């Protein structure tokens, strides 16, 4: 069973989608990626959790998500492990990103997830 800490740290698209700050310490990441993760977790995690329906993200979530740059995507994708994918929905991460106006090209791979065509 995943701990509450794992659930809390799982967001960093994610997408940007959602990962733990403790995971960041063990990977080389861009400064922007490392700075954005806590805000993504606090503002966007409820929109990308595995259980529940797709829900449009809040303005606060989109504001943080829009700070993610194309250069940050590989950073976030490195952090998407099988454990992370058990608690966040990569489909919802892509939905949130696109709803917030971020281009997520089909074929982008994060963890074991490949973004399908629009």
UniProtKB/TrEMBL annotation:
Bifunctional inhibitor/plant lipid transfer protein/seed storage helical domain ranges (all copies): 15-110
Keyword Repeat belongs to the record: no
Signal peptide annotation: 1-31
One Pfam family named in its UniProt record: LTP_2
Keywords: Signal
CDD domains: nsLTP_like
PANTHER family hit by this protein: BIFUNCTIONAL INHIBITOR/LIPID-TRANSFER PROTEIN/SEED STORAGE 2S ALBUMIN SUPERFAMILY PROTEIN, OS01G0800600 PROTEIN
Entry protein name: Bifunctional inhibitor/plant lipid transfer protein/seed storage helical domain-containing protein
Origin species: Salix suchowensis
Upper taxonomic lineage: Eukaryota, Viridiplantae, Streptophyta, Embryophyta, Tracheophyta
